[in-house]
Amino acid sequence: MTLNPLSNPKGVKLLCELCQKPAYIQCTKCRVTYYCSVEHQKADWMGIHQKICPMLIELRQAAPFLPSEEERQKREKQLSIKKRQMIDLTRTTGQKLLFEGRHEQAVPAAMQSLRFAIDVHGLASIELVPSYLILGEASIGLGRLNQAEEYLAQAQWTVLKTPECSNAIKSKLYRNLGLLYAAKGEYDESLRQLADDIYHASEEFGTSDIRTSGGYFHMANVFFRQGRMDVADSLYREVSEIWYNHLLKIVHVRTRTPDIPKGIGPLVQEQSEEEDGLDEAQEAEAVQVLNAIYDMREHQPNRKAEDLARVCHALAMLYFILYDIQKAKEFGRKAVVTSEGDRDDQLSRTVVEFMKVLETQRTA
User: Fold this and answer.
1) Whose CA is closest to 213, among 102, 304, 314, 290?
2) By C-alpha distance, which of 340, 281, 304, 337 is closest to 110?
3) Which range among 16-20, 121-125, 184-188, 271-275 shows the weakest confidence by mean pLDDT?
4) Distances (CA, A) of 278 to 53, 98, 145, 202, 318
5) In what residue span(s) does the MYND-type domain sit (predicted)?
6) By three-state DSSP, how is residue 5 classified?
7) Span 185-212, pLDDT tens digits
8) pTM for the full model?
9) Cβ proximity of 31 and 25 under 8 Å
């Protein structure tokens, strides 16, 4: 990150990337981004700018003169593709930062995604809603509940006036509303919103998908706060099971032995089983959710051995997928010890087989 104090050229209005106030500092790497203060430049750099700095140059520089309409249309198409890629990148980064508890840093990423979404889709598009939701959740995390209500009201209004809105977006809206009401201590309303989240996520992805599990997790947290541990416990178990099965599939694909071709003549390549991996946000979500459940299980009196063993095994698989072999072995050993006190022989065998795979891996 570099500073470049500047005097605004006459007639040119430069605005801060974060607050849209008059800007007096320029990023000397991309030279197309401006700030009102060093604090805002640092905040943007930590949140998203260091990741997208070089990409902004082509997107924000003045268009070159192109002699033909065909060349101009080709350039516009290329820019549109890059802007859509920026929307995906900034949203994923913002969501990842939220799962990591870095709410302040998620704001610049969400603002960038909103800016590009408006540029590509217009001010009233349903495509803006995911950005509003990240801003809303960041505001909840920062305790700025009035601001969160404004962002979520804008998202809700857009959803209501868009009949073709997907269940996936509705699910995220209701999840954020559930988090807002939970932060306000209105638990019954929070549970109602989270139930709507789970319904729409199940319609879109199925009841046992990791994208549905977030609703179960937040609902479990609300029941936990209410002291209703029997219900919370069953929901935490459901979340663990969903992540466990998803991670097990990834590990199976990553560690299976490739098939050896047989016969003679030209080889016909069969479509191999593809790894259904995790994006950055899903990785951060898995780390947050599974560690939270593990901490709860470890200190839980009268817990079932299977519950702790399963979440330990899930964490071992997660860290294996993230190439943190040391942590994978640590949780794997805990899973082995815990599963010895469980009656489910299948779980014990699966853990032992996984540990054999881990022993072949180098610790970074």
Assistant:
1) 290
2) 281
3) 271-275
4) 25, 16, 31, 19, 10
5) 16-53
6) strand
7) 999 999 999 999 999 999 999 999 999 9
8) 0.86
9) no
* Sequence-distant (≥ 6) Cβ neighbours of residue 193 within 8 angstroms: 174, 175, 177, 178, 181
pLDDT value at position 270?
Answer: 45
Q: What is the DSSP string of 157-201?
A: HHHHT-TT--HHHHHHHHHHHHHHHHHTT-HHHHHHHHHHHHHHH
Do 131 and 161 contact (CB within 8 A), yes or no?
A: no
Q: Per-residue pLDDT tens for 11-61?
A: 567 999 998 999 999 999 999 999 999 999 999 999 999 999 999 998 887
The Cα–Cα gap between 310 and 305 comes to 9
Placement of tokens 């860290």 in the chain = 319
For residues 18 and 362, the model is more confident at: 18
Is residue 323 within 8 Å of residue 364, measured between CB atoms?
yes
Token readout for 71 is 């060349």
Residue 248: its pLDDT value, please? 94
Q: Which residue has the higher pLDDT, 173 or 5?
A: 173
Output the six-digit token pair for 213. 């599990």
Q: Note the helical H segments in the chain.
A: 38-44, 50-60, 69-99, 103-121, 129-141, 145-160, 167-183, 187-205, 210-225, 229-255, 280-298, 305-321, 325-339, 345-359
- Distance (Å, whole) CA 110 – CA 145: 17
Q: What is the DSSP letter of 15?
A: B
Per-residue b/e over 36-60, b at no fewer than 16 CB within 10 Å?
A: beeebbebbbebbbeebbeebeeee
Model confidence pLDDT, tens digit, residues 74-108:
888 988 999 999 999 999 999 999 999 999 999 99
Cβ count near 298 (within 10 Å): 13
CB atoms within 10 A of CB 94: 30
